[in-house]
Amino acid sequence: MSFLSRAAATSLITLAAATPLQAESLKVRIGYLQWVPDRGPVLSNVIPEPEDAGLRGAELGINDNSTTGKFLGHTYSMQSEVADSEAAAVAAFEAMRQDGLELFVMNAPSSTLKSLTEKAGDEALIFNAGAKDDALRTGRCHVNLLHTMPSYSMLTDALGQWLNQRRWDEVFLITGPTEADKGWADAFRRSAKRFGLELAEDKPWTFDADLRRTASKELPLFTQASNYDAVVVADVRGDFGEYVPFNTWLPRPVVGTQGMTPVTWHRVVESWGAAQLQNRFRELADRDMNSEDYAVWAAMRSIGTAVTDLNSASPTDIRAFLFSDKFQLAAFKGRKLTFRSWNGQLRQPIPLVHPRGLVARAPFEGFLHPNTEMDTLGFDKPESECRING
Fold first, then answer.
1. What is the pLDDT of residues 116-145, one digit of tens each?
2. Cβ neighbours for 158, distance < 8 A, ≥ 6 positions apart
3. Dihedral through CA 359, CA 365, CA 369, CA 370, nearest 10?
4. Among 127, 124, 25, 131, CA closest to 76
5. CA–CA gap between residue 260 and residue 164 (Å, rounded)
6. 367 assigned to some structural domain
7. Phi, psi values for residue 29, rounded to 5°
8. SS3 category, 161
9. Full strand arrangement of the beta sheet holding 357-362
10. Domain that holds residue 27
11. Same domain, yes or no, for 134 and 174?
């Protein structure tokens, strides 16, 4: 055999080894379902969330999975539905199940999520990338429901640690009227007790007036108190919280859902390769990545990471892998992320940001845990009734 013949034969052997056999190709189908109820008119000039928040994160996650999968013979596809009502969301889910889909990522309220997981039974694996309610992680948890969106308590524990670390121990809490506001505030009250903070004042926001012209008169009177180190706002929708900074009775920082905020993700997060993720998302969506986008992307990448290792798209196999010691999600947060075995929550650092900068990242040094300091954020195993892995 000539030199050229031997070289050609070697190249063919190398190419054959590097190219997946057609018989070994794997098709991975994922359903993405989104339903975000109309929040109604707000009483401020708050910038609304983009209507495609979450969906764009799903598209990026599928693209990233496909980039890796093409070298392994794995083909990813997504069937998506952005519903305009709970009934439409349920109908879309049932249609996807009838079409044979078993892997789902959902950005929907907790009530809808509960309904759909009950309909799914034990066959489908569902990722919650939208609902923050603590009850989903502390009560009767579904064995096939995992959470890539942090809970309210994870967010408020990050804030509680930061306030404790700064020795800003007395805070003025203002809670808005919506259920989301109350859920956030309840989580913060727990965090305050957990990290030794005192609620100098705990007042509900009962006004229904437009503050755009009267904030400088109304808010100083509302926040009048003898002393406090910071004002904590629970106004998820943004009715009044945007006007609290610089209008308080005492010259104090504002934190919570406005001011400095604990979030899942934000455009100011750039370390540990995050700038690359941010740029790829902007190229895809022509806007910045937000928390919903990130949570959905993390769910898609969790599936992709498992499929890459297992060469299987079985929900049972994927679930077992995600709870094993082999799984670690590389997610641009400076740590490898893992799922909590008792309730399916993805452990992750929480950035504390203001609109133009990153302030800090929780958990912080000094808050100890027998297993991992990541479990100082949110309900720990002894605090939760969930035992989805026995």
1. 998 887 889 999 999 999 999 998 799 999
2. 262, 350, 352, 362, 363, 377
3. 140
4. 25
5. 15
6. no
7. -110, 130
8. helix
9. 261-262, 350-354, 357-362
10. 10-150+266-348
11. no
pTM, to two decimals: 0.92
Percentage of residues in the chain having pLDDT higher than 90: 81
If residue 361 lies in a helix (H) or strand (E), which one and from where to where?
strand 357-362
Query: pLDDT digit string (tens) for 131-186?
Result: 999 999 998 799 999 999 999 999 999 999 999 999 999 999 999 999 999 999 99
pLDDT digits (tens, 9 = 90+) for 271-289: 999 999 999 999 999 999 9
The reply to whether 92 falls in a domain is yes
Residue range 309-329, pLDDT digits in tens: 999 999 999 999 999 999 999
Same domain, 253 and 275: no
Please say whether the beta carbons of 264 and 249 come within 8 A: no
In angstroms, the CA 259 to CA 228 distance is 16
Indicate the pLDDT class of residue 20, thresholds 50, 70 and 90: very low
Q: Which tokens go with 128?
A: 């919650």
**Hey, what are 311's tokens?**
């060469």
Domain boundary among 226, 241, 261: 261
Alpha carbon distance, N-terminus to C-terminus of the chain: 63
Unique residue bearing structure tokens 């190709």? 25
CATH number of the structural domain spanning residue 201: 3.40.50.2300
Residue at which a domain ends, from 205, 233, 261: 261
Tokens of 65: 């999975």
Contact 181, 235 (CB under 8 A): yes
Q: Specify whether 146 is located in the same domain as 277.
A: yes
Residue 22 binned pLDDT confidence (cut-offs 50, 70, 90) = very low
Claim to verify: residue 217 and residue 339 sit in the same structural domain = no
Please confirm whether the linkage preceding 363 is cis (ω < 30° from 0): yes
Asked if 365 and 162 count as a contact pair (C-beta separation under 8 A), the reply is no
Residues 236-249: tens digit of each pLDDT:
999 899 999 999 99
d(CA 90, CA 108): 11
Taking each continuous run of H as one helix and of E as one strand, the counts in the chain are 11, 14
Asked whether residue 388 is domain-assigned, the answer is no
